[in-house]
Structure formats: C-alpha cells, structure tokens
C-alpha cells in the first residue's frame, strides 16, 4: 500500500513512540510520517494467498512470514515501511517484538496509485537492507508477478511471470522465489482473486 499525502514531520524516535499510539499505520521516510491508504479486495486476497502459501512451505524451517502490520526498519533512524508480505529467516527477527530488520524476501502488491512508489523510491530504500535477496511485485489488476533477485555479482535481475491464457495459462507458469527456494503456480497466487475488468484504452 502507498503512504498518502497526509504526512507529519518528526524525528525517528518521535515517530516510533507516536506510531505505537496510532489507530492507523504510518510509514516514515526522510523525516516524514505518511498515513497509509487502504487497499482493494484483490490486493488483500493476494496478500492472504501469498502469506498462506509461504507459511505452509516454511513451517519448521526457522523462518517467519509476516504481512501488512509488520514494520520493517532499515536502520534505527529509519526509514520504516509496512510491506504487504515479508519473509525473514534471521534469528534476530524471529524473536523481535516491534519490527523486522533482516528480511530476505519482501513482497509488495501493486495498485495503480502505488506502483510508481513501490517500483521506485521504496525499492531503492529496500536495497539498503544487507539481508534482502529478493523483491517481488504482484499485480492486483492483471495476472503477473515480477521478481527482482540479487545475483552472485550483487546485481538485481528481473524475472517476470505472466499468463495470457493463449500461449501459457496460469497453471503452467511456475513462479520461483529463489531467496527461499519456493515454487508455486501463478494460478495458486491468484486463487479466488477477482481481478477488475481490463480498462479500455
């Protein structure tokens, strides 16, 4: 989800103390706290599907799957974000009470109003996380997943997974999250997700 234009200026310490008292979540970037906007039902369904699939796969492997209300801190002074889904296999995070700091996989579900932010500034900030190995973008309007994976040369490589129902259907497209060696069909990610009708150009 995207932070809205409703924002407040404060220090990182002030933000962390203030955020605990708020009814709604706020992200924190460049000294500003941004109120989070709501998502759509497809957005929510995709996050639930991904969390369910990953939790089942990772059970007993010493990793933790967290979603929407789990705050990620890039440092003690921020930025602080709320990704849609994340996986951490670091003992420091598994036992953490307030925020995640060492994720290996972060997933954001895209919406028209959030896509530029998720692809741009947010990904730029996430790349500062030394433990992050994979950043995944899931489209909530059409069936498609893009995975940015950190390779052995420390470069981010894109692998895209799309189905067009003509050349490849969603059942035959296998999505691979290399950071945790997880595979599933594109259809499983979009199971029972009601995507909006395509917009006419």
TrEMBL record:
Coiled-coil stretches: none
Species the sequence originates in: Drouetiella hepatica Uher 2000/2452
InterPro entries, A to Z: Nuclease_put_TT1808 (IPR012296), Restrct_endonuc-II-like (IPR011335), Uma2 (IPR008538)
Lineage of origin: Bacteria, Bacillati, Cyanobacteriota, Cyanophyceae, Oculatellales
Keywords: Endonuclease, Hydrolase, Nuclease
UniProt domain Putative restriction endonuclease: residue ranges: 13-173
Keyword Lipid biosynthesis on entry: no
Keyword Hydrolase: yes
GO molecular function, one term: endonuclease activity
Pfam families per UniProt: Uma2 (PF05685)
SUPFAM superfamilies linked: Restriction endonuclease-like
Name of this protein: Uma2 family endonuclease
């Amino acid at each position: 989800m995207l932070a809205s234009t409703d924002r407040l200026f404060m220090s990182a310490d002030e933000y962390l103390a203030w955020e605990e008292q708020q009814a709604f979540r706020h992200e924190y970037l460049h000294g500003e706290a941004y109120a989070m906007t709501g998502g759509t039902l497809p957005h929510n369904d995709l996050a639930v599907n991904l969390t369910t699939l990953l939790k089942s796969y990772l059970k007993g492997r010493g990793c933790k799957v967290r979603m929407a209300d789990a705050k990620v801190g890039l440092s003690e002074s921020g930025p602080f974000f709320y990704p849609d889904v994340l996986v951490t296999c670091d003992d420091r995070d598994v036992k953490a009470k307030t925020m995640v700091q060492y994720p290996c996989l972060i997933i954001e579900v895209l919406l028209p109003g959030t896509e530029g932010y998720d692809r741009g500034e947010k990904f730029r900030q996430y790349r500062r996380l030394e433990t992050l190995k994979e950043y995944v973008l899931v489209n909530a309007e059409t069936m498609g997943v893009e995975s940015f994976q950190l390779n052995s040369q420390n470069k981010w490589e894109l692998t895209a997974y799309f189905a067009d129902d003509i050349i490849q259907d969603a059942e035959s497209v296998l999505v691979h999250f290399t950071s945790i060696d997880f595979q599933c069909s594109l259809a499983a990610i979009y199971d029972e997700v009601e995507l909006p009708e395509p917009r006419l150009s």
